[in-house]
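Figure 3 (text version): structure tokens given as input.
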């Protein structure tokens, strides 16, 4: 009786344990000190609440112009609550991934002829949630693990929409399908790099609902829901960027939008993209400590690799079976919908993977596929030999090895101050209403800006998308601001790059020279940062 009660309430138990365990894990590991958080996640929310998009000039570099919606709640938590509340809240939300993986596994495995489907759902949820990308981001603001909740939610709602015997046109099923599309669109609207999941699931729904089942109504409901959610999440910020820079994705895809504020080119991060077909085919085999393909930091994770190999073996097995055993038994499943659901899942996973490989090849963006890989692996096995003890033991061993062999990246953490999250203390600024602080190098330093008087302006003169040699409306704006503030200029940079920073300032100027007058230390718990007062040595004008 007690076991039956546990089984009946297993979903609630998994929900409670996953959110609680991830919350505790986030607190124990400490707060976010990643490059991204220091560079723009914290600043962008501050800029949004204080209307600084046009007041400052790109202090968080290219990331200044990313949609700040996901950063707003973490910023408010930091401002109004102790650091532990910040970690607890993010960790609990991230724990929802485990619960959703359990729900997805349960939805699939109970329709297969698989013994102990709930046990396998729990095992796959744990295996999926202990991946390198997932564990690296627990309690952090990189937002891949935050947005993956919406992706997994979309997967679960889709599977629920297909629940029953072809009941896709029933009112509850249409509601679930709408919810699936809505969550998927929301994920891409909040974090545009997750558009790869929209492409992947869109292709899967197109093939299954439209091509195979001719369910036009279901397909268009999904598309409309996804499109509406994407516009809801991204549309307002796109409108802001359009009004400000004449490019709703500024500075991305500027070869198309031709904003005068950036060079007419499509900027992208191509560091990890495969150089040729052979490198692309071997890509999943390099998710190890030696190559750590797709990341600047070391990691090791073979979840996607194992699914890649399993797909190849399953394909070979299916071909041999078709050739030599044409009258063999059909695929075994409790539900006739189960093979179709597996087809949908695999199309979703591999279309997403190919889009990721083509566009980014940044490993942490693959977090949703890493999480779903163990479920897909078990699903593949269940299509052929679901009740074979050998297959079940082999699956169990593989999943255990995947867990114990994983090594996650370390993006940077610290234990924050209760009074002042980063422990930032800034020196006094003379005449702050007219002061302009110049930022050089590509170091992530915008997290100190909220500690300065609100009237101080910050102008990035060098970084990952601004260079003094460029002639754009943005660099013209920088030159104008320099000419207006020659008597009250400061330089914010690393102590080791002070002279380089001064040289960068002088590249914007002619007929006069900027030199350092006096320097102070900006105290933080994270980085050595210098603030220097600049002096005009020779009178002149900025370069036209």
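Below: residues designed for each position.
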């Amino acid at each position: 009786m007690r076991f039956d009660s546990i089984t009946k309430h297993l979903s609630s138990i998994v929900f409670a344990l996953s959110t609680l365990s991830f919350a505790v894990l986030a607190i124990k590991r400490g707060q976010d000190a990643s490059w991204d958080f220091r560079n723009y996640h914290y600043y962008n929310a501050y800029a949004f609440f204080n209307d600084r998009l046009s007041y400052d000039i790109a202090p968080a570099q290219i990331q200044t112009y990313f949609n700040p919606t996901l950063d707003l709640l973490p910023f408010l938590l930091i401002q109004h609550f102790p650091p532990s509340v910040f970690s607890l809240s993010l960790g609990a939300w991230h724990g929802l991934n485990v619960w959703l993986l359990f729900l997805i596994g349960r939805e699939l495995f109970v329709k297969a002829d698989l013994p102990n489907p709930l046990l396998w759902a729990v095992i796959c949820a744990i295996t999926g949630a202990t991946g390198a990308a997932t564990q690296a981001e627990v309690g952090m603001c990189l937002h891949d693990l935050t947005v993956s909740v919406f992706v997994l939610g979309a997967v679960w709602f889709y599977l629920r929409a297909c629940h029953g015997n072809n009941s896709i046109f029933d009112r509850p099923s249409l509601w679930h399908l709408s919810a699936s599309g809505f969550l998927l669109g929301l994920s891409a609207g909040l974090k545009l790099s997750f558009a790869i999941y929209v492409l992947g699931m869109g292709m899967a729904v197109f093939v299954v609902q439209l091509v195979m089942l001719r369910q036009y109504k279901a397909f268009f409901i999904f598309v409309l829901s996804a499109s509406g959610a994407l516009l809801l999440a991204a549309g307002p910020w796109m409108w802001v960027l359009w009004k400000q820079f004449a490019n709703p994705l500024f500075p991305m895809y500027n070869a198309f939008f031709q904003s005068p504020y950036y060079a007419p080119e499509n900027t992208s991060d191509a560091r990890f993209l495969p150089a040729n077909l052979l490198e692309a085919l071997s890509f999943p085999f390099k998710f190890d400590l030696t190559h750590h393909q797709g990341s600047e930091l070391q990691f090791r994770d073979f979840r996607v690799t194992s699914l890649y190999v399993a797909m190849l073996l399953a394909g070979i097995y299916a071909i041999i079976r078709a050739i030599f055993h044409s009258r063999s038994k059909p695929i075994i499943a409790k539900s006739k919908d189960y093979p179709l659901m597996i087809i949908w899942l695999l199309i979703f996973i591999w279309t997403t993977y190919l889009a990721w490989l083509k566009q980014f090849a940044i490993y942490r963006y693959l977090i949703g596929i890493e999480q779903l890989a163990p479920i897909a692996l078990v699903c593949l096995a269940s299509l052929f030999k679901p009740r074979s003890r050998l297959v079940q033991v082999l699956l169990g061993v593989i999943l255990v090895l995947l867990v114990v062999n994983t090594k996650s990246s370390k993006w940077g953490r610290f234990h924050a101050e209760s009074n002042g999250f980063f422990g930032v203390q800034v020196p006094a600024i003379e005449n702050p209403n007219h002061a302009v602080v110049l930022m050089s190098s590509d170091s992530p330093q915008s997290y100190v800006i909220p500690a300065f008087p609100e009237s101080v302006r910050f102008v990035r003169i060098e970084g990952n998308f601004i260079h003094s040699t460029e002639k754009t409306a943005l660099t013209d704006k920088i030159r104008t601001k320099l000419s207006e503030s020659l008597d009250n200029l400061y330089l914010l940079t690393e102590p080791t790059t002070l002279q380089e920073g001064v040289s960068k300032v002088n590249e914007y100027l002619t007929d006069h020279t900027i030199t350092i007058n006096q320097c102070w230390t900006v105290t933080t718990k994270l980085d050595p940062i210098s603030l220097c007062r600049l002096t005009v040595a020779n009178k002149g004008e900025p370069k036209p």
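Residues 165-172 have pLDDT under 50 and may be disordered.
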